[in-house]
Amino acid sequence: MTDSILFFFEVLVGGLLSGTMYSLVALGFVLIYKASSTFNFAQGAMVFFAVLSFCGFMEYGMPFGVAFFAVVLLMILVGLLTERLVLRPLMNQSEDTVLMATIGLGFVLEGLAQAKWGVEVRKLSLGIGDFPIPWIADNLKLFISALDLTAGLVAFVMILLLTLLFKYTKIGLGLRAVADDPGAASSIGIPLKHIMLLVWSAAGVVALVAGMMWGARAGVQFALIELALKALPVLIIGGFSSIPGAIVGGLLVGAVEKVLEVYIGPYFKGGIEAWAPYMLSILFLLYRPEGLFGEKIIRRV
Amino acid sequence: MKPVFMKYTKADIINFVVLLVIGFLVIPNVIKTDYWYTSILIPWLCLTLAALGQNIVMGYTGQLSLGAAGFMCAGAYACYNMMLRIQDMPFLGALVLSGLIAAGLGIIFGLPSLRIRGIYLMVATLASQFFIVWVIDKFGWFKNYDVSGSTTFQKININGVAFTSGHMMYLLVAAIVVVITLLAINMARGSTGRNWMAVRDMDIAAESMGVSLLKTKLQAFAINAFLCGIAGALYTYTYLKTVEPFAAFNISLSFKIMFMAIIGGLGTISGAFIGAAFILLFPVVLNAIGNNVFHGMIDATIISAIEQVVFGGLIITLMIFEPLGFAKLWETLKQKVIRKKS
């Protein structure tokens, strides 16, 4: 292989792997959307909130596992409060109203996290370096970051678990029933409250994992929120209600933005990454508004 | 209540005259310190215009849009370049033209609204936010190849009168805001506004009644961008003065303007004024409390974090209890007082 092709593959693989990080954030959105048809704009803020709290607990001297467990509990609490204070009062409101409320929720979480833990950039070390893996570099001549590869693996495992949960368990069946028709689901005895709590807690755990991956790469800081916003175009490309969609969308966005940035970016002094995902999502909206894997949207008068 | 002039009742006209007297006679004579003009009244009026645009597209037409700062950036730099490159360009002419340029961009970025709505549309409008600011930042021509990366805007001069003091600039901005608000009120009360609201409440039904979705939605986006463009130009010329595109017109400004529209009251004109005042003044009040009551014991970063919590919490509360915002609360309060009197 010539060097330029090799370089292209390197860029592509780097893009794909960093795209899995978008997928991880998008996964949280999909979870909540699947179970409640709610667009949770606060997912990005939850990522920030979770990982900042994780760093904070670590600074208190908690060991890694304990801190992780503490944040999981904290995210369950957040889910509980959100269900009780935000979602339940807005039960029969229009989609747009709930969406705006979750934007508000996002700001509350960002504010709380910063009020408690401060605004300085924190380093998060997972014991996995953000440098090329020597074995792959030597044998395949590809430079692939160990962190990217870990993120990819973690994403894969989470997707596997969530897909199994949705497809093959009773809870998953309940989740799908609630998403389809909350009224009918509750009338046949599916506990709506518990289902919502469960989903929001799961989204919280996904947020924590996503935040840890992002934090290890870019530092735990407020800019994470803007990165997490890119999960929105990922969702549009993949389809809001599809777990595989979140993954494929993330990979696509990661790859396209990296390739554009590396090959076209230099002509424009860079920064294409900032808008490329959104433009890509507009293209998808024009030709396939429901996304790659989404269900067709049908509206009636 | 009988209309006495162009469908406006006596009470409407009295309210209007009272506001004009306060705005142009009382305030300029009572407030002497420049701080009030340059740091509070001017940014308030500028952002009110942007919030008004946001309210038209979001509150009246029901299209979620999150790109106000992008259009403001476009308006500001359009005005800057016209003043820079065209000889003897009158400032007001440049202002209107930059509004029109922003409106053109608004139509382009509003096009997705013909097929999508809700959060889909919001993501599409985010593209305008990031793309416009990126173009202006990366192509040196827009910034006249300033090596520092920031732009210092020209001083305003209309017919030989220099508008440099806070006092003068306030009068200029206030006059523009009055004219635009009157236009907006007329549009919102006329057939245009009724079409907007019909599209908001049920677009498919509106279409079957003969309301053109294409025209109505794009019109709302164009007017939104027009107002944001003018707001952006005024905001930079009278308030910021030196601007770095990425820092000044970032996503959080767009969020702020969206919050102004929501908190003030979606689908009301007065809501834009109330919302902008609240979002701007609340941090000032909070800082004053931090400095005077707690004597600086509370860190500034914590204060701004508290601000976020309050704004976010307020939005949730309003969505639950009063989706029409402060403007509606004010109306209800007024009604109660009137009922008690009679």
Characterization of this structure:
The complex is a heterodimer of chains A (301) and B (342). Chain A has 301 residues and is mainly alpha-helical. Chain A has helices at residues 3-36, 43-59, 64-87, 95-117, 134-139, 146-168, 170-180, 182-187, 192-218, 223-229, 231-238, 243-263, 276-287. Chain B has 342 residues and is mainly alpha-helical. The radius of gyration of chain B is 20 Å and the shape is globular. In chain B, the strands form 3 sheets. Chain B has a two-stranded antiparallel sheet. In chain B, helix 3 (68-85) packs parallel to helix 5 (118-138) and helix 6 (166-189) packs across helix 7 (191-201). Chains A and B meet through helix 4, helix 11 and helix 13 of A and helix 5, helix 8, helix 11 and helix 13 of B.
Largest interface: A-B, 51 and 46 residues
For the biggest sheet of chain A, the summary is: none
Number of strands of chain A: 0
Report the end-to-end length of chain A measured between terminal Cα atoms. Answer: 58 Å
Which structural class best describes the helix and strand composition of chain B?
A: mainly alpha
Mean pLDDT of chain A: 85
Report Rg of chain A: 20 Å
Which characteristics define this entry?
heterodimer, A: 301 residues, mainly alpha, 13 helices, globular, B: 342 residues, two-stranded antiparallel sheet
Short description:
The complex is a heterodimer of chains A (301) and B (342). Chain A has 301 residues and is mainly alpha-helical.
Break the fold down into its secondary structure elements and pairings.
The complex is a heterodimer of chains A (301) and B (342).
Chain A: H1 3-36, H2 43-59, H3 64-87, H4 95-117, H5 134-139, H6 146-168, H7 170-180, H8 182-187, H9 192-218, H10 223-229, H11 231-238, H12 243-263, H13 276-287
Chain B: E1 3-5, E2 8-9, H1 10-30, H2 34-60, H3 68-85, H4 91-110, H5 118-138, E3 151-152, E4 156-158, E5 161-163, H6 166-189, H7 191-201, H8 203-208, H9 213-240, E6 242-243, H10 245-248, H11 251-264, H12 270-292, H13 300-321, H14 325-341
Antiparallel strand pairs in B: 1-2, 3-6, 4-5
Helix pairs in contact in B: 1-6, 2-6, 2-7, 2-9, 2-11, 2-12, 3-4, 3-5, 3-9, 4-9, 6-7, 7-9, 11-12, 12-13, 12-14
